[in-house]
Design a protein that fits this description.
Distance between the termini: 61 Å
GO molecular function: S-adenosylmethionine-dependent methyltransferase activity
Pfam families: Methyltransf_11 (PF08241)
Oligomer: single chain
Protein name: MET27 protein
Organism: Pardalotus punctatus
Domain Methyltransferase type: 32-121
Length: 195
């Protein structure tokens, strides 16, 4: 209800961006939805959905949708994701990268569970109270790209991300805040030449 009242576009934009980036029909792709979402990825053809969330109540709601094959409790940033390395074709973290939420230090853990060549879809807000967090997040994203861990495919700033809750948070008096969708592709592990 809160998300509907805020007219939050992040889930729709993230699902569309990930579906566009994915090179093959996604039905067989294994996807991890971190801080589980709304089921929009299922509507985009993703059928093998696993989810993790730090709230048992949210996991029960996710279970009631019947869209997830596996759901696990995990407080991201405090414990590792309950998945083996290189397990998922795609990982999403939508609406939870922000001040007072999931720390940007989780990025290597998201990468760990993503297959080489797999995709990561992340979002954050650009409102004034989240700018310091966003700056740190983008520095971490760029550091991982410079190190060769992944390649940025998309960083789309969206002006009408969601309805602002205060005038101070509004982008140039529009009544909305802006946000960003990022799509990264995990770099394949280079093969060593013999000889």
């Amino acid at each position: 209800q809160d998300v509907a009242a805020l007219e939050d576009r992040a889930p729709h934009l993230a699902a569309a961006s990930l579906a566009f980036a994915f090179p093959a029909p996604p039905a067989g792709a294994r996807l991890l939805d971190v801080a589980w979402g709304t089921g929009l990825l299922h509507r985009r053809g993703f059928r093998c959905l696993h989810g993790v969330d730090g709230s048992a109540g949210m996991l029960e709601r996710a279970r009631s949708t019947g869209l997830y094959q596996e759901l696990r409790l995990c407080v991201l940033g405090r414990e590792p994701l309950p998945a083996p390395a290189e397990h998922y074709d795609a990982v999403t973290l939508v609406g939870a990268l922000g001040e007072g939420q999931v720390p940007s230090t989780v990025l290597p853990e998201l990468l760990r569970v993503t297959k080489p060549g797999g995709f990561l879809c992340l979002t954050t807000r650009s409102n004034p109270s989240n700018l310091r967090y966003k700056e740190g997040l983008e520095a971490a994203l760029e550091q991982l790209e410079r190190s060769g861990a992944w390649q940025k495919l998309l960083a789309q700033e969206v002006e009408y991300w969601e309805r602002a809750t205060t005038e101070e948070e509004s982008t140039q008096g529009t009544g909305y805040i802006s946000g960003v969708v990022y799509i990264y592709q995990k770099c394949p592990v280079p093969t060593l030449e013999e000889g």
